[in-house]
Amino acid sequence: MAANPSNPAELYAALLTAELAGLSSAASLGVIGSLIDLSDDLGEPDGARRALELSDLLEATKLPEADAALLEYFRANAWSVLQRHEPTNLWDWEQPALGKQIFYLRKCVCHAAFSKLDKLRRCQVFANLGNCMDTVGRFIEAQEYWGQALTLEPKFGMAVGNKGCGLETYAQALYDPGHQMLFVKFLQSLDCERGRGRSGLVRSRRVLRSCLFDVRCMRRLSKGALTRKLISDDWPPGVAVAKLWQAMLLYGP
What we know:
The chain is mainly α. It folds into three domains: 1-87 and 94-117, no CATH class; 133-173, no CATH class; 175-253, no CATH class. It contains eleven helices and no strands. It has helices at residues 8-16, 25-42, 45-59, 65-85, 96-110, 119-135, 139-152, 157-171, 177-192, 197-227, 237-251. Helix 2 (25-42) packs parallel to helix 4. It starts with 7 loop residues before the first helix and ends with a helix.
């Protein structure tokens, strides 16, 4: 493979015809991973299909456990490329490529050597699985997977952003803006106390009581603000409460 690594198209062409014979398992995974990434960057689904073929060949060899777990993650990524770059109808009930992603990501998580993977890699697996669950409408499970990624690394950007967007969408299922703010705050309290047993449940109940007290206070405050012209006269009282809730959640009570 005498390809110029600074030329993606040339490197892609070389990897597309590469063979794994004589390569170590780590080097073979490097070929497969690079081929998947370049296939996505260049919009060439043939590279993802070739990566899946190479994955089957590599699986037939004796792989170290951690490499076998990582291979399942790479397979999921290859199916993700096929989903993005092959024409499909988003409204079709059957989404084979998305189903394959979920299958291989779950297979990776359930692998005996999953815990041996690098922490960042495990975050990527959980975040991608959350994304897939959110795509198929299972947004509660998506929250769980994004939460597992953030348990490993609280600053993992994709999980932070998607979890926040998911919570916002989840809350919007409620018709009342004030209830939406209450719902989000209560979910945040549950999330903060996850894994702390009974003490977490007690704290969550206290936070809920505090939220209900805040609602009463905010209603009184909104009425006073309306009379003092601090809130636009065009806002009905319910919207005023919601706006004050938003300010409280963003900046504190």
